[in-house]
Amino acid sequence: MPVLVAAGAEFEVSRPFAGLTIGFRLHIEPKTAVLIEALVAGGAQIIAMGNEGTTQFGTVEVLTQDATTAGSCEILDRPGDGPSETAANLRRIAATKPDLVLDNGAELIAACLAGGHRPVGATEETTSGAFRLREEHAGNVSFPVIVINDSPLKSIVENKHGVGESVVDTVVRVTNMSLHKKRIAVFGYGWCGRGIALYARQRGADVVVVEIDPIKALEAAMDGFDVAGTSQVTDTADVVITATGRPDVVNLATIQQLPDGALLVNAGHDDNEIDIRGLELVAPGSELSPSLKRHDLPSGAEIFSIADGRIVNLAAVGGNGNPIEAMDLGLTLQARSLAALVDTGSDLAAGPQPVPDVINDNVATAMLQSMGQMGRTYRT
Amino acid sequence: MPVLVAAGAEFEVSRPFAGLTIGFRLHIEPKTAVLIEALVAGGAQIIAMGNEGTTQFGTVEVLTQDATTAGSCEILDRPGDGPSETAANLRRIAATKPDLVLDNGAELIAACLAGGHRPVGATEETTSGAFRLREEHAGNVSFPVIVINDSPLKSIVENKHGVGESVVDTVVRVTNMSLHKKRIAVFGYGWCGRGIALYARQRGADVVVVEIDPIKALEAAMDGFDVAGTSQVTDTADVVITATGRPDVVNLATIQQLPDGALLVNAGHDDNEIDIRGLELVAPGSELSPSLKRHDLPSGAEIFSIADGRIVNLAAVGGNGNPIEAMDLGLTLQARSLAALVDTGSDLAAGPQPVPDVINDNVATAMLQSMGQMGRTYRT
Amino acid sequence: MPVLVAAGAEFEVSRPFAGLTIGFRLHIEPKTAVLIEALVAGGAQIIAMGNEGTTQFGTVEVLTQDATTAGSCEILDRPGDGPSETAANLRRIAATKPDLVLDNGAELIAACLAGGHRPVGATEETTSGAFRLREEHAGNVSFPVIVINDSPLKSIVENKHGVGESVVDTVVRVTNMSLHKKRIAVFGYGWCGRGIALYARQRGADVVVVEIDPIKALEAAMDGFDVAGTSQVTDTADVVITATGRPDVVNLATIQQLPDGALLVNAGHDDNEIDIRGLELVAPGSELSPSLKRHDLPSGAEIFSIADGRIVNLAAVGGNGNPIEAMDLGLTLQARSLAALVDTGSDLAAGPQPVPDVINDNVATAMLQSMGQMGRTYRT
Amino acid sequence: MPVLVAAGAEFEVSRPFAGLTIGFRLHIEPKTAVLIEALVAGGAQIIAMGNEGTTQFGTVEVLTQDATTAGSCEILDRPGDGPSETAANLRRIAATKPDLVLDNGAELIAACLAGGHRPVGATEETTSGAFRLREEHAGNVSFPVIVINDSPLKSIVENKHGVGESVVDTVVRVTNMSLHKKRIAVFGYGWCGRGIALYARQRGADVVVVEIDPIKALEAAMDGFDVAGTSQVTDTADVVITATGRPDVVNLATIQQLPDGALLVNAGHDDNEIDIRGLELVAPGSELSPSLKRHDLPSGAEIFSIADGRIVNLAAVGGNGNPIEAMDLGLTLQARSLAALVDTGSDLAAGPQPVPDVINDNVATAMLQSMGQMGRTYRT
Fold it and tell me: Nearest by CB to A373, which of D181, D318, D373?
């Protein structure tokens, strides 16, 4: 993760977090450990917890024993923690009145607000967390909250290329199927859908895009994809992939119209874009491999599903998640946004807001350089 | 132009312009004649003039003699008209106090304002015309002005795919050069630059993008292009293409660093992105073919230029302009925007504004259908 | 033409043709003039004629007046020459008993044989000329004849990329049509067809390949194209392009099944792949532009044709022929093959034969270097 | 495997192997079991053994217990078999004097020849097995041996698209690395190299091809890839992938010139294209994950290797081998070639020979149909 490591090296000199505490709430695993190291290098004292059930305790051990982080980073998670421990840990971090909060889902910010604490500022990883702050805590958030996921860098690097590529990879990996001339219906032509459609075509698939926004649909057609309505693809799709952010896009009636052998895949964040629960009621899945199920419809058709309709590149066994380069980008946005919150020059308004332009530009430039661009020598 | 013709057929029934006059200022040639026919079918009485020197009088003759348009369309242009006649015609149209104005450069709207006339509403083709209204006539534009060129449809269909493809085509056409493994430096990764880079790569070129916005530069890199600064490309580029919208992007010093044989091409609207004037002073071009010049630099290097640095796909002999499908789209946006201005349901604010979403959606859907999408039968 | 010019520079030192005469029969225009210059630089005395009606007399004037070629190159063509002058010129060259023959269609070789002359060796540009030698003059050709067109370099550089790209370019140029989502049926998946299919897809077209050889058809499918039989494409193709080398591939019955608005294009050498003559009988074409005709079928459908079904990239007005790089390659193969015929080390058998491997390798390497490959400096 | 299953269904009717025995020597696993079932359906009595150490005994159990194959298929392998049992089994099958032999490496054919048995005919999976027959048993092979791997179908479907895609997939899977703008040096532009280069580019890599044959090198350049010599890529390659079929293409001296962090990958059949053994001597690998090693060079540079330089898509943990469609193709070629050997109409010569055209055509057509081609209904 060269971009994040470079940020950490810079922080070691500039010490933006000297004397400050950070309440940290993000999956704790080797990659986020690099983020913690960068923040500690910048002078931060960290009190941290992961999302429930995702903490890797080997990483915790490294962070709490390593000389550079040991005295500066406390991690509250314990093996076997359940909902009540999670709630207690959120309250416990809020009670330390951290100067800054790094959040993932807005629960730690909510705990601070509930405890009457107003940090100097916060970062929030998710769009849905930001939405919750605007809906449930409107008027209450008197400090800036930088929403990482809305950065245009994440749309391009993580959603289009990172997610798009890894979703298609995971389908191939789980099925060992060639996609050549397979008809793949991609529901949704947002950033993830654009990437899924692109990488499926790169493997020889015939992609048809289903998209209710006519402007995006026209973009898909100009990009060379077929465009159709749901009813036009259901009797011919070999593979259905959803990436819409909406529930019940592929409902049971649609599933029942699919041809024999069709495969159901969801790439959206929630597991409700395809009605796998409804399908399970009429045709319980039998497991063919850890992430692949076959459903025998009453009609006689066999329908296959991956990972029970959960987000395929993360939930499927063998799903490769996002490439390390996309993680490097996202965590560097986190690190630099935290620094901006305590930089008097930033002059940030209160409430949820996008990553400042200057940070997007800075991180984009650093990532370009890590890709060998902007300093390349050309042929003579 | 099936999309515009369909709009005209609809207007013939709905008659949105019945009893209304339209002051019309747009190039008058066979394609815009179809727009005039659609407006007349909708009940409009039109008084028209083209942009100076672009009027095709064969088209004028057809429009003024054809039974369907003859009585409903007056065209003021006469062969040989110069600046003074143009100014007089603008005043003359303004003096008729048209109910609606269709403008291209905001001069007709300015003439109306100067004459104290406030139309019900107007459309303006160009972004620069809209800019002028905001700068020079701020507070004065008490009626809605729909700016066609800002429509996301135009960005995708016309700028990226229409302009991008035709710029690359024109370079090949003028030079009869294969682009395989030619190193092409594309300055600017806006919509036009994205298309130019894409279509040059489709022909086997090695494209390097020069872009000062780091976010767009990162997008270019993720799209697979090399990204570099000006100084890194100047000693190796076989072809330089500018599409930045800024002056002096490739100045004389840069031109003098280019390798022997380099070709200069501008795809931006104005002819000042590459300093051809400066080049002419030190190395006057000798014409090799109507649009291709060779400049012998004092250093001994030969530099080639197309169309004196004017917008290549329009200005070069053999330049194919935009494909007819892009024209169909743009003129339909014009027609439907004019109808929206007199539709009481539209409820438009005063001043320059983007094309209403409902029109973008409507035109996008019509164009998809004209492309054979959304109603296609798939294999069984 | 850097590769041919480099060969000429080499010849100027090695003088392979010193004291030898070459009977030359090839289109005489600026590019072949560079070939003549290279041969003269190598010491040759040339007596030349073009193919009937293709000679450019401006080029003749340059060659016969320029100091370097004036005394070494006689050109027999005169403006207005017809079949009888052509036959006389062939006999006249044969009567000079040239040491080497460069032929294009095998007529000059045939004239030599008829006159009892056996040159040291010959080159023949075309596959059909070689075929004629094998059929009509079998056993009679006691000297080596190197057949240029069978070189694998020509298949790749000229047929796939040169012809493929220029055929698609010419269709766009003549029609100013966008190919996005147009359904294009490509008949034949040989080298030309592969290129046409590829470059049409690069412009956004939906390509369906019609190919009777199942292995090539499978290759097309693995390359991502749809594959179908004639009867499956005729009611839906927007554009039909033939590149099969066979007559009557698209016959009148097929044409009559095409949808309204379909466009007929031939990319094969002969003008009989599409039965335009039959079409003319039932629906005479009216000219829309110099190379574009509209045929009104009795059924009411309009069918369009380009260049009367002749080879589109050469015959259409605005067709760009092959890119200069493909010419450079082909003419260098000619020059080096002629040198090999008089190189005692070549040890060539009698009769028509492919370009020797060593020449293909040599020319391929030279062309790679002219493309900036093999000596490029990469980023550090 | 629809194509093989269809062949089996046809055999069930035509019974080409009725009364015949087949000596079978091929990996025994679920996919080859489908081949055994097809042969048994055609009337064959089979005596089989796998390649050493690859037999899956679950599959053996199914085949020996299933009603359709139980009485017609004897499998000699036992868990724990070593070289001496393998040799004994080869002799044992040869001693049964099978009418037909299906071989993989020519050892069973050699055992027949050694035992004085001449079968009616044989198939041999590998090119190297065919080579051995020509070298070591020349003049001795008095019966036809159809060499499956030389079929042009395998070049396209298996080598280019199957191997090419799965090699790149495996690199991504083992490293979780994004290939965007990574510089990947592909050694060899044969069928596998063509596919590797293509699929690496589809993932955003900058591919440079190293190829000693100038004609293939020129093809690579025309396909848009950079082309260079070994010395030009060694100081910049992020990833090196070999697919040449030659030993020591990347030797220790080359490895030592690679930049810090470079990754070594072999896609060739043998594990000697990259000198991993030499690398191990100077920089023993430490295992980072089951298939990924890091080598710390004395110079301080870190070099990574996958699967110790063995064929990556088969040998790496998580390598996905070939897609099932490529297996379907190859095994159907086996089945139909065996039937051709006993079809009196085939009239095959003695000795190793390619798959008959009629079989290639037949299997290509069947595969096209299984891909939904040739019978597709197009939009109206």
Answer: D181
Asked if C231 reaches chain D (Cβ–Cβ under 8 Å), the answer is: no
Closest CA–CA distance from residue C325 to any residue of chain D (Å)? 11
Put simply, the answer to whether D176 touches A202 (Cβ < 8 Å) is: no
DSSP code of residue C99: S
CB-based contact D377 B376, cutoff 8 Å: no
Subunit contact D377:B372, Cβ cutoff 8 A: no
Residue pair B199/B165 in contact by the 8 Å Cβ criterion: yes
CATH number of B159-315: 3.40.50.720
Euclidean distance between CA atoms C227 and C255, whole angstroms = 19
Q: Compare CB distances from D153 to C183, C215, C361 and report the shortest one's residue.
A: C215
Using the CB atoms, write b or e for D142-172: b if 16+ within 10 Å: ebbbbbbbbbbbbbbbbbbbbbbbbbbbbbb
Is D221 part of the contact surface with chain B (CB cutoff 8 Å)? yes
Who among C156, C217, C235 is closest to D368 (CB)? C217
CB-based contact, A378 to chain B, within 8 Å: yes
Fold of A158-315: Rossmann fold (3.40.50)
DSSP-based helix, strand, coil % in chain C, nearest 5: 45, 15, 40
Task: Render each residue's pLDDT in chain C as its tens digit; 380 residues.
Answer: 899 999 999 999 999 999 999 999 998 988 899 999 999 999 999 999 998 777 889 899 999 898 889 899 999 999 989 899 999 999 999 999 999 999 999 999 999 999 999 999 999 998 889 999 999 998 899 999 999 988 999 999 999 999 999 999 999 999 989 999 999 999 999 999 999 999 999 999 999 999 999 999 999 999 999 999 999 998 899 999 999 989 999 999 999 999 999 999 999 988 999 999 999 999 999 999 889 999 999 999 999 999 999 999 888 887 777 888 999 999 999 999 999 999 987 789 999 999 999 999 999 999 999 998 875 444 43
The CATH number that domain B2-150+323-370 falls under is: 3.40.50.1480
Which CATH number applies to D161-315? 3.40.50.720
B292-296 and B286-289 as β-strands: parallel, antiparallel, unpaired? antiparallel
The tokens for D239 are: 């990833």
Q: Please, which residues have CB within 8 angstroms of residue C302's CB and are 6 or more apart in sequence?
A: C260, C261, C294, C295, C296
**What is the length of chain A?**
380
Sheet of strand C263-266, all strands in order from the earlier edge strand to the far edge = C226-227, C206-210, C183-187, C239-242, C263-266, C302-306, C292-296, C286-289
CB-count exposure of residue D189 (10 Å: 0-12, 13-18, 19+): buried
A2-150+323-370 and A158-315 have identical folds? yes
What ipTM goes with this model?
Answer: 0.92
How close D321 comes to chain A (CA, Å)?
9
Q: Three-state SS for D45?
A: strand
